[in-house]
Each structure stands twice: as C-alpha cells, then as structure tokens.
Amino acid sequence: MYNMPDEKGHFGPYGGIFVAETLMPAITELNVAYQRYMKDPEFLAELDEDLKHYVGRPSPLYHAERWSKELGGAQIYLKREDLNHTGAHKVNNTVGQALLAKRMGKTRIIAETGAGQHGVATATVAARLGLECVVYMGAVDVERQSLNVYRMKLLGATVIPVESGSRTLKDALNEAMRDWVTNIDDTFYIIGTVAGPHPYPAMVRDFQTIIGREAKQQCQEMTGRLPDALVACVGGGSNAIGLFHPFIDDSSVKIFGVEAAGDGIETGRHSAPLCAGRPGVLHGNRTYLMSDDDGEIIETHSISAGLDYPGVGPEHSWLKDIGRVDYVNITDNEALEGFHALTKLEGIIPALESSHAMAYVMKLAPTMNSSETIIVNLSGRGDKDMHTMAEREGIKI
Amino acid sequence: MSRLKNRFEELAKSGRKALIPFITAGDPNPDFTVPMLHALVESGADVIELGVPFSDPMADGPVIQRASERALEHHMGLSKVLKLVAEFRKTDQLTPVVLMGYLNPIEIMGYEAFANAAQRAEVDGVLTVDLPPEEAEECVALLKARDISPIFLLAPNSPPERIRKMDAVGSGYLYYVSLKGVTGAGHLDTEDVKRKLLEIRENSNLPIGVGFGVKDAETAKTLSAIADGVVVGSAFIRKIEENLDNPENAKAEIIALTKSMRQAMDS
C-alpha cells in the first residue's frame, strides 16, 4: 500500500526539510502538533463540523452531460470545489491549519498567495477566529488579481505587495519565510500548497484529500464503479493531490496532472517543472524545479497566477518518477478554450487554473468511450479572472 | 592542516578575535570582487565569507537580496564565484575563504562536482543556509574528505541537543545568528548573545562567529569580547549600494569601516 512520506518527510529523494536554522524549532513544534491532532478525535470532529457548516461540504460531483456529449467520448464529472465558501479548494486547508494554529496558541497568521485564492481563504478563517493576518503577494499578482486583494482587505488582512525578484508567487513565499523567521514565537505560517518543508506537503495533502475521498464515494454512488481517469491542474499541486491521493492504490484509475505550458514548453515561457524542469531544492523541499545551469530559479509564465510557480509539491515529483501519474501540459490559449467550453456548455465559469484541467479533458475525453468516466477537479470559480479575461479579449469593464 | 583551523589557533594565541567580512561575489560587478577581498585582508579581515548569489535568498534581508540581484545581472553563478576564489588564491595563500549561499546551485552542479571544484579553487569552508545537518550527510562527507569545512548556523532558539549535533557534523567554526530574523535586521541584544554563547560553549569546542545585525565598530567590539569572530555583511554591502555610480568610493568606505572595526576589536 502507498504510504508516503517517511518520518523525515521524504517522498523517495524528494521533500525533506531544507530551511535556515532559525526555522527548525518552529517546524519541529508544528510537526509534533500535526502528528498529535491528526489523530485527535476532538480535533477531527471540529474540523468535520467546520467543513460541513462553514465550507459547505460535501461539494457536489456533477455529471456534465452536455459537455460530455459535445466531446463525444467519456462521461465527464466535475468535482465542484468552486462551490466551496470563498470559491476554491484552498479553504479546505486553511480551515484545518487555522484550527491547528488555535490549538498551538498562535495569535498571528501569515500566508503567501498567487492568484489570491489562498490569501482570501486564509483571511477568511483568520477573521472568523479573530487572528491577526498578514498576506504576502507578488506585486505583479496584486495588479492582476486586484479583486481578491480587495476581498482580503475587507476581511481585515494586511496585504503586503512583494517587490523583490520576479514579483510573483515564489517571491511572496520568500517574503513569508522571512516574516516567519522574524516573528517565530507568535506566528503560524499557513502555506497554501503541498510544498515547503515537512510537514507541510503531507499536512496540506491530508487536509485536501477530503476532495478525493468524497469523489470516490460519490462516483461509486452515481456510476456504481470507480472512475477510469482523474484530471486536475498542478501548480504547487494541492487540489491535484487532494483528488489523486485516495485513488493511488486503485491501479485501474489513470491519473493526469496538468501543468501550465504558458506560451508553449518550446518557448521556455511556461510553469511546467515536472514536464520541463529538473530536481533541485527551493522553499524547504527537494522537488522538480525550473532552474538554469547555475541553479538560479527561472522566471515562470502562465496566464493563471495560481499556476505561475517554478516548483511543485515533492509528492508530485515522486508520483512522476514512479510513473503513477502522467504529467501533461496545456498552453494559455488551450486553457482559454477550456474556460469558454465549460462556460458556454454547462453555465459554469471556471478559474483559469482549473481551465487547464478542463482543456486537457477536451483532449482526453474523445479518446475514451462513452461508458468510461473522467473526474476532473473544478478547483475554483472564475469570478476572480474577469479582469484578466476581459483584457485578453480586448474588452473594457 | 586547514587554513581555518590555523587562523583561529593563531588568533587565539595572540588573544585576538576574527573579523569576518561578508560580501556578495560579483556585486556591484565581477571586477570589483577580488581587489576588494585583498583590500579587506589588508585592512584587518581574518576570514572572508563570500556570498554566492541566489535568485531566491530566503534568509536574507533586502540589502543582501539586492546585492544578489545586482550580481545576477552579471550572471555571477556558482562556477564563476569559484573562479574568483581561484584568482584570489593566486596572491593570498593564507586567508581562509568560506562560501556562503543556498543549496540549489550546489544541487544543480552536483555535490561531488562541487566538492571537487571547491577543492581546486582552494575554498576552505562552505556555509549553506538551507541545508540543515539532517539533510547534509552526503554533502558533508564529500567536503570533509577534501579538507573543506562544512559550517553550520545556530540560532537563538537552537536547543542544546542541536548545538551538539552542529558540533558533531560541522567544522571550522559555528556561525551564531544573533537574532531571530533575516540578515541586516533590527538591533541585537548583546546580553542575550552572551547568555547563548555560554550555552554553546558548554556544548561545543568549535570557535564561534557571531553575525546578523553587526552594524558598526562599537557592536563589533562588544561582540568580540564574547565571541571568537564577528561577521559583518549588510553594513559593507550598504556602502556598495550607496555608491553604485562610483565603486571606488564604496571600496574606500568599506576599507575605512573594516579598519575602524579592527581597531575597536583590538583595543
């Protein structure tokens, strides 16, 4: 049976703890708390209650009949994480980590964000628990996701635009790490994806696997069997691992992780470390990265801020190496086709991140027959992307 | 015997403390670095910490981040930094040089290739900020086999068992990070540092260098009373940043600051 990581946080050669010494005691403290509370029935019951009544779980599994018919192949089922409170899967994790922060007696929450979904989900739970909240966001992302910046501010968070480096998600992560090092005693760092030093990749995964556990049960109920394929977009990879993980031992289920190819892998302007990168160490873990021959991190590109990251969760690196998951890629233009298809045919506007998964389904479904099923993770809704879309299509709003 | 060990033994014999300047290789341009290193030695530096520029310096404050960015505009990657060390060695066989940076450039070069290249360039120590001892076994073994010291950081919140661990895997000296924060940050409380150094000494016989937040001659003097070495980084790099249009000015100001620190530490 698949059982990763080991007690040191390793997924094969990946993962681990690669941080400056000042962070080590905090990471040890977090790991002890995580090990303890993930087995604590009272903690788990409180988490379940919050997921049910605050987040709105379970999220539906929706049979996209019209889209399936149009593509003329497999039956497509959407896991509707877009219907969660705050509009994406991110809240599954922030609710869990915030409960943990409260148990640990931390009074201040920090987070990094790319598209702003994780920032909003963090500001939301911080508001609910009355905790101070500071969100770091690359200055480029602050501009292209201004709606989410405003949401975070309404929720009482301080949003700090990060002007260093490429001024995107990776730089926001650097800055959050610097804050954490400086304010280690009272601060809990809620990382939004399955990356960072151990225990984050395992912990965030454990909070996100609710997606896959529900989907498995719902699929059984609706079709009487397991799905034939799973599809999810991969930036850091938290929505993907959340869907994939409960199916890893089900060898009949094909699994596809979709990276952002930006302008195209061959142009070098992309965010696809699993498809076109190499292993290295960044942000506390060893994983596939986009770095040059000197080991400097390369600037990434994607139309979706949430996928615009040069690394990926270490468990995905392992799942790639052992061949359990196929990592594929979708360009900006293809993602836009996915965006429009779902919007027009099903009346559901997906986030640009999730649109990458939709675009891959458009390639995959026609190669399968109509008795087969695909579950695709609709990880977030597209409201936040209206400005980006309008600008791209030359429309003023 | 290694240059680092020699240097700390000589200093201990003469009752002096090590002045350890840090500058980022290639900042503000590649031609600046080697002459600057020689000038630092002439002005009283005992050990050199040479920063390997990295695109994502997570443990550094804004001053050293910008130094990295300036150096990377000149593509000053790890292999070029090693060339600078080799050049420095042509005329200075005595001063230990410690590379300080992040793990990814070493990972991409490959541990063994890096250890060999560092040996050829006559590097004396390697301090990798994001490589704690738990993950360092392979790298440490390769370095030690070539008589290069792996140097580890200790923080204000490092418990005694961690100090013993660093003592066991590290060599050359231990680098005590004097505050919870990034390089160049806030003010440092010398009483706190004093207490922690006593605890470190109970658990290790390695020399202790103290850094992060040493801004002036006075702080350097206070610390040299309790530590074996004082590391100064951001204060020097600020001089470079203030004189980007005139690097020779920066050099003169760094020399003056080094001399004032040396004098204060020896008085």
Question: What does the model show?
Answer:
The complex is a heterodimer of chains A (397) and B (267). Chain A has 16 helices and 15 strands. In chain A, helix 5 packs parallel to helix 7 (146-154) and helix 10 (210-223) packs across helix 11. With 397 residues, chain A is of the alpha/beta class. The longest helix of chain A is centred in the first third of the chain and has 15 residues, at 41-55. Chain A has helices at residues 24-37, 41-55, 65-71, 90-103, 117-129, 139-144, 146-154, 169-182, 200-208, 210-223, 238-244, 273-276, 314-321, 332-346, 352-364, 386-392, and strands spanning 10-11, 14-18, 61-63, 75-80, 108-113, 132-138, 158-162, 187-189, 229-233, 254-264, 269-271, 278-282, 284-289, 326-331, 373-378. In chain A, the strands form 3 sheets. In chain A, strands 3, 4, 9, 10, 11, 14 and 15 form a 7-stranded mixed β-sheet that branches. A 4-stranded antiparallel β-sheet of chain A has the order 1-2-13-12. A 4-stranded parallel β-sheet of chain A has the order 7-6-5-8, with helices on both faces. Chain B is of the alpha/beta class and 267 residues long. Chain B has a single domain, classed as Alpha-Beta Barrel (TIM Barrel), CATH 3.20.20.70. Chain B has 12 helices and 9 strands. Chain B has a 9-stranded parallel β-sheet. The longest helix of chain B has 20 residues, at 247-266. Chain B is globular and about 45 Å long. The mean pLDDT of chain B is 95.
Quick overview:
By secondary structure, chain A is α/β, with parallel strands linked by helices. Chain A is 43% helix and 20% strand.
SSE blueprint and pairings:
The complex is a heterodimer of chains A (397) and B (267).
Chain A: E1 10-11, E2 14-18, H1 24-37, H2 41-55, E3 61-63, H3 65-71, E4 75-80, H4 90-103, E5 108-113, H5 117-129, E6 132-138, H6 139-144, H7 146-154, E7 158-162, H8 169-182, E8 187-189, H9 200-208, H10 210-223, E9 229-233, H11 238-244, E10 254-264, E11 269-271, H12 273-276, E12 278-282, E13 284-289, H13 314-321, E14 326-331, H14 332-346, H15 352-364, E15 373-378, H16 386-392
Parallel strand pairs in A: 4-15, 5-6, 5-8, 6-7, 9-10, 9-15, 10-14
Antiparallel strand pairs in A: 1-2, 2-13, 3-4, 10-11, 12-13
Chain B: H1 3-14, E1 18-24, H2 30-42, E2 48-51, H3 62-73, H4 78-91, E3 97-101, H5 103-109, H6 111-120, E4 125-128, H7 137-144, E5 149-151, E6 153-154, H8 160-169, E7 174-177, H9 190-203, E8 208-211, H10 217-224, E9 229-232, H11 234-242, H12 247-266
Parallel strand pairs in B: 1-2, 1-9, 2-3, 3-4, 4-5, 6-7, 7-8, 8-9
